[in-house]
Amino acid sequence: MIPERIRLRILHTNDIHSHFEQLPRIASIIASLRQEAGAEHTLSLDIGDHIDRMRPETEGTGGLANIALLNAIGYDAVTLGNNEGLTCTPEVLNELYGKHARSKVVIANLRDAETGSLPLWASPYAIFNKSGIQIGVIGVTARFTDFYRLLGWNVSDPFEAVASLAAELRPKVDVLIVMSHLGLSNDERMAAEIPGIDLILGGHTHHLLEEPIRSGRTLICAAGKFGQYVGVVDLELDAVSKRLLHAEGGVKAAAESEEEESIRLQIQQYAVKAKASLDREVARIDCDLDVDWYGESRLGNLLAAGLRDWVGAEIGLVNAGQLLGGLPQGPVSAGMLLELCPSPINPCRMKLSGAQLLTALEESLLPEFMNKPLYGFGFRGKVLGTLCVDGITIEYDPEAAPYSRILSVRVGTEALELERLYTVGTIDMFTFRIGYLSIAEGLEPEFFMPEFLRDVLLKELHNARAMKDSSRKRWVRMNGQAAPH
């Protein structure tokens, strides 16, 4: 005789990154699948990076739009990704998750650096009872230790946290789930090293698993990025022993679903509120500020100068691709700054040798670097772009052979010394070894948080000296040869 079985359905999303246009379809899918299985048999989870401050609906509402929609769709639990943890201050997180979120917030490895306690709005795990089945859920996020420390958090080893909690929870629950904003390779490691986990729902590396990865007893699942898919896992358990008998998973494409009208209308309402906030005037300028991804521009110069001043460095250095547009003469709104500089990237100070600087400057004259497409690590632009600089003057010959185009470099009034270390104001993105790799070799990186590049730019728009100086040429085109320095 076949034993009676209890069926459970786990619905999951990850790395939506404020793609609000997908949420009406996601809501429709979740509502339909929940109704099909029965609410008492269904658990809905989000694995982090729902928030992305590049989107006006998020930036203009301080993230409230995201939380309201998580509530409206009816998630049982969420964890935090690095976009929540690193682009929102603790005060903002307290407001969003402490006052407005109705989902349980489950995160085991993020604690207040002073007290060592979890925030009041979070728990290391949660236990849900669905049709008499006890489901344990653990949440962990990626360990960006240095960045979290600057915001007042201590982010601990997620493997140690999961191993300890799995050992504690396994005797108490029938199903054990890890919400892992760690990336696929870490999920595979976790499945191999930590016993007792039935299901790992992943995110962070935007991997799409149309079929789960099976590692021993553990199923590893993920639903890609930007709300393009909803993950679905169906479990069957013995009704008497509560033993897990069968598990299968997959994804459902959002594009195949109709929109949930109430969610679409709610998004429209938040978009109106966000626009009203972002339309406020934050500066007024008396000239046009152009941008050029492939050459020198006033706005690029201004941003490089702002980074140099912000961190107190000898040299300012930033890729032109951070700027997606220019600014016309007249009033500047918060929304205009968001549109032209959407990346949640922070200032950084480091030490670079003259030789490393020279390599980066040579690379910035090459099409393969200027045209390099990038995504991730905070970057929300399209291509890397050339280097915008401040504090240095470069003479170059664009017709010379690659890596021989720089004819001279002066730091202030002195010739660049290849062996000397210079303090450079730049961006945290380069420390992740993308873009100009010689910059990633810098020593003693220091990060400045929570401000973004658009905050640096706003400060410079109010600096009359910097505005005037932005028209001064840093890159001087020459013909003929000169001895390189």
TrEMBL record:
Keyword Signal: yes
Family annotation (PROSITE patterns): 5_NUCLEOTIDASE_1
Superkingdom to which the source organism belongs: Bacteria
Gene Ontology cellular component annotations, sorted alphabetically: outer membrane-bounded periplasmic space
GO molecular function annotations of the record: 5'-nucleotidase activity; metal ion binding; nucleotide binding; UDP-sugar diphosphatase activity
Nucleotide-binding is among the record's keywords: yes
GO biological process, one term: nucleotide catabolic process
Pfam short name (any one): 5_nucleotid_C
Keyword terms, alphabetized: Hydrolase, Nucleotide-binding, Signal
Family that this chain belongs to: Belongs to the 5'-nucleotidase family.
Protein name: Metallophosphoesterase
Organism, as annotated: Paenibacillus naphthalenovorans
